Amino acid sequence: MSEALFQRACTLGIPSGCTNRAAGMFMAARDDPSMLACTYRSFARACAFDDPWGCTMQALQLSRGLGVEPDNDTALRVLQGACRNGEDDPACQSG
Length: 95
Description:
Layout: H1 2-11, H2 15-28, H3 33-48, H4 52-64, H5 72-82, H6 90-94
Helix pairs in contact: 1-2, 2-3, 3-4, 4-5
């Protein structure tokens, strides 16, 4: 049920809905390269729309090379978006 709600929120343009939907997909299909590429695009888009958790997840995939080529320099840059609400924000601490 929650996956459908997250998808609906994403469709309506709410970045955190996209992040949450992609996170569910990420956890369910960590061994599927095409799914990981899809979740990466979703996290990158959410990050571009200022969603801190989207940035955290995009950086995770970049740093570990999950669905994309590993790129630590870009991962560190992306993590700056995860900390936009301060270092105490859980998204920043998880990065």
